[in-house]
Amino acid sequence: MNIVVLVKQVPDSGAERNLTSDDNTVDRGSANNVINEMDEYAIEEALKIKEAHGGEVTILTMGPDRATESIRKALSMGPDAAVHVVDDALAGSCAVATSKVLAAALGTLNADLILCGAESTDGRVQVLPHMLAERLGVAALTGARKLTVDGASLTAERQTEEGYEVVSAATPAVVSVWDTINEPRYPSFKGIMAAKKKPVRTLSLADLGVSADEVGFAGATSAVVEHSKRPPRSAGTKITDEGTAGTQLVEYLVTEKFV
Amino acid sequence: MDFRLSDEHEALRETVREFAREQVAPVIGELYEKHAFPYDLIRQMGKMGLFGLPFPEDQGGMGGDYFALCLALEELARIDSSVAITLEAAVSLGAMPIHRFGTPAQRAEWLPRLLSGEALAGFGLTEPGTGSDAGGTQTRAVLDEAAGEWVINGSKAFITNSGTDITALVTVTAVTGTNPDGSKELSTIIVPSGTPGFHVLPAYSKVGWNCSDTHELAFDDCRVPAANLLGARGRGFAQFLQILDEGRIAIAALSVGLAQGCVDESLKYAHERQAFGQPIGNFQAVQFMIADMEMRAHTARLAYYDAAARMLAGQDFKRQAAIAKLYASEAAVDNARYATQVHGGYGFMNESAVGRFWRDAKILEIGEGTSEIQRMIIARSLGV
Ligand SMILES: Cc1cc2nc3c(=O)[nH]c(=O)nc-3n(C[C@H](O)[C@H](O)[C@H](O)COP(=O)(O)OP(=O)(O)OC[C@H]3O[C@@H](n4cnc5c(N)ncnc54)[C@H](O)[C@@H]3O)c2cc1C
Which CATH superfamily does the domain covering B238-381 fall into? Predict the structure, then answer.
């Protein structure tokens, strides 16, 4: 099975993150950049499928030059090769434009299965897998907590708020995963050494036949016009139990629209 | 002149750091309180290839070097020393002698399981009656030529990794005769776990390293095949001196990890803890304790990097390894003392990481050559 895993480099969600003041985009320069956490689960799932069924695993990343660090790290877990879409004109791309570029890159890769994380910790829009499937004209099995491969048939347990749904589709398909699906492996030293020698192909917008004005700030379908820091947490409400604390708690939750 | 890490060493360091923070840190406090051996962590470390780090790939290793092992030990010990010493003893004292001195048959029999972390090996040199003075070894092995077996009698003290559920063997040093000059002939022999006459006594109750496995061992007419001799007969002394020289760099790395862990914890606490209406990190007395801790950790790291670089370049590194081990272990003890001070009463609680660091630090000035022995090695190398 030919598997492509989408990997995005994001600012470390464990550290403080900021938006830049000039163009309201994520400040990637000052942040410690890491592989989007959910993507590590997608890589692990791809490797497990390869181990069970054979095939090849390719990493696909769209991002600046700096994203090569994350590509090497992803490769050290075990995938065979990587494709890096890199072009100055891509800066500021919205989800719609990103899906256009990734779909164009996938067009060159002949994938049976496209795996990705259900969301990225920087954007958190959760729409990319759906957009991508739509552009490619294939099924989208999103938010999987379990994935079974049987020949050309994929069955996923799709995590929902109440429980899960069982959905299936024939390959090729896009499957996005949550962190409940597996436990990603840590790279071994052998994997780290091997990653140095694995092929990483770079593609520009011109290579993909996508014009620069369809992407980046120029082609963005949405724009952030303003941002401000989240206000510091205000003091909480203290309820002392004098027999009515339960009611007071529920009333608080209702007024704050938590329930 | 450059002390920066290669990309691969840096990637390894980061990976082990992530593992230690994500997998070791959340569970170690409870395991430590229970004096439980961390089987699950060891299994995960085996899967990451940490037990095979400094061994060639054709032996089932990771194709890394001894420095890679040191970096892994430093990052593990930054979170917990019991886990780190389990790896150090398993690789440096357990598997390394078999890799270095073993016959092809011995390597084939033991290394695959040892390098994957599925099995552990111990190294028995110290005895109840003798530690620093290894020439005082009393354990005897007599060759029963008719049976083709060594018959071992004696006991060993404080042997790491000797009694876990996954311990496969212990290599022991024993007197096998008398040299022409009248001194003892020392040899090393592999004793598989479960051999009749090989008794693993109950685990010691230790001051620290609670999750590390340490036992006294007794040999009572214990018979093993003559082929279990490791390396040449009479070479036991020279062999363990070589193993211990390298091991000192590994213990230095582990000590640096503990010393750096003290800085990490103290920094966090200095920002969080309020006294007299401000974070304690605002007080110069606290800042200076942390600055001194960082200075010691940094200097000790440079010392072990230098010793490792010399070793990998095939140069003499005996003095540099002794300096690194001596300085780093003293830095670890000092940092543990000051980190506990920064934490106030909380630092004296077993639940605090620095409380663990404090208990785990002292052994670093004792094991694999006491500080006095390191000073003797340094002085001797200088010609006094
Ligand atoms: C938790 C733990 C794990 C261990 N694991 C292992 C293991 O896996 N395998 C193993 O073989 N051993 C192991 N050891 C033993 C350890 O290596 C010894 O304890 C150490 O070498 C010191 O020996 P000793 O305890 O006999 O002290 P001694 O040698 O009796 O030393 C007592 C004191 O005398 C000093 N001294 C001794 N000789 C001199 C001298 N000539 N000049 C000046 N001062 C001197 C020492 O420095 C020390 O201060 C372990 C010990 C512990 C506590």
Answer: Butyryl-CoA Dehydrogenase, subunit A, domain 3 (1.20.140.10)
